[in-house]
Amino acid sequence: MKHTAMNRREFLRTTSVAAAALTLPMVNSAEKRKGVAWPIGCFNRPWVKWSYDDALDGIKSAGYKLTGLLTVPKNEAFTLPTATPDYLDGLKKRITTRGLGVNMAALRFKSNETVENMIKDVRAQVDNAARLKLTYLLTFGIDKPENYDKFYKLMADIAPYADERKLRVVMKPHGGGSGASEEILRCI
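Given the sequence above, the corresponding structure tokens read:
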């Protein structure tokens, strides 16, 4: 058997990978004991060039059971303020007839609007998400520091409003005012 020399970097890399691999069965069994069941779904973003019905068909055929309303395709409103009750009911039916569930929608707002208009638009989205019986509303934060205060006022209004409707507002680390934990904590 031929022995090859291993430098320090290779030794550390090899032993680190081996140590991490050894913990996988422990993590997996600990999750099973706690009953962890992470919902795994698929956003519609890969299908933005096609119709939302094509996206739903693709999500279903890929084996997913859950989707989220992320990128608003052409000819759709998702939970935007322009969505009508009939549209929302039809959207829910289009999703459920494929055997899919939906648990999340992205919140959209225009940072160049007044705080009052931002609140009005986002409250309409919250109401639309509640009609769809979603669980989460995802915000991507705000980019420009001059708009941080408006965003904080918006979130201060929307969080309790959504909570009253059994919805959770979730902030995605996405740069700007929500780029990292420090910015997210400042917002909270």
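The two ends are 61 Å apart (CA to CA). Try to locate this feature in the token string yourself.
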